[in-house]
Specification:
This protein has five helices and no strands. It has 98 residues and is an all-alpha fold.
Length: 98
């Protein structure tokens, strides 16, 4: 048995990235639920569903797609880059393992 401990989480970056992809490419925030940030994950799911419904309601509007892309970039891309660069943390503040 090892006599050392690591400062990384038991959650992996690959799984977090997979949950980011499965959650509507980050809109639903499933990566937050994966790392046990349940409150933030629930808020992101509600916010993501609202955004998707708003985009669907404006689908005949020509400005709906750019507005949807702007919302997607604001909401989803920060977590993507945090996961890729190793800044994304779990609920106790430990960075994700490889």
């Amino acid at each position: 048995m090892a006599r050392y401990s690591t400062n990384t989480s038991d959650k992996s970056k690959k799984a977090a990235l997979l949950f980011w992809l499965l959650g509507g490419i980050g809109i639903l925030g499933l990566e937050n639920i994966y790392v046990c940030k349940f409150k933030k994950g629930a808020i992101r799911i509600l916010f993501g569903i609202f955004i998707l419904l708003a985009i669907y309601a404006m689908k005949e509007e020509p400005a709906a797609i750019p507005v949807g892309l702007i919302f997607w970039a604001i909401v989803s891309l920060p977590n993507f880059f945090k996961i890729i660069f190793g800044i994304f943390r779990d609920n106790v503040g430990a960075p994700l393992r490889q």
